[in-house]
Amino acid sequence: MTKTGFPEEVTADELATLLGVTPKTVRNHADRGVVVKASRGKYLASASIRNLIADARKARRSNDLDREQLALVKEKRKAAELRNAQVEGELIELDEAFAVLDSIIATYRIGLDGLPARITRDVALRKTIKDACDATLTEASNKFTEFAKRMRTATPALKDNNHDD
Predict the structure, then answer these.
(1) For residue 164, what pLDDT is reported?
(2) Which residues contact 155 (CB under 8 A, 6 or more apart)?
(3) What is the pLDDT of residue 3?
(4) Spatial distance between the Cα atoms of 47 and 59, rounded to a whole number of angstroms
(5) Cα–Cα distance between 62 and 45 in angstroms, integer?
(6) pLDDT score, position 124
(7) Across the chain, where does the E strand assignment appear?
(8) Phi and psi of 123, rounded to 5°?
(9) Is the dihedral of CA 98, 101, 107, 109 positive or negative?
(10) Strand partners, 11
(11) Which residues of the chain have pLDDT under 50?
(12) What end-to-end distance do the CA atoms of the chain give, in Å?
């Protein structure tokens, strides 16, 4: 017996019971050199447990590193996909998209500005139609402005990626 209260040497079955694993797992770790063999069918309990704990810590650090590397690879792939989409004309810069929408809305506004005169000669009715058109355009403009603000704050990384090339 050692100071820890464990026998110095144990069988695969005893070590497996102590660790909550199967005897085959103990033997597999022994084949890897993690569990320390003492003699035929016997293992050094304290040294084996220390080695198993160290091996588990090392595996955990390795898994954390693997996850970080996987996340980095995913980010690089995403950036490459965005660059490819832009090159292939499937992606445009936010400012360019807003300019196109501004142009379309300006055309629509010009058309609506002339609408009251095309509909009636009655000045009062023209004013009512113009006020209704203006209110609708103002509401659309406010929604567009709010959307543009959200897009600009939500996509700073995209803007940075587009200008790094």
Answers:
(1) 44
(2) 94
(3) 62
(4) 18
(5) 25
(6) 95
(7) 9-11, 37-39, 42-44
(8) -65, -40
(9) negative
(10) 42
(11) 158-165
(12) 68
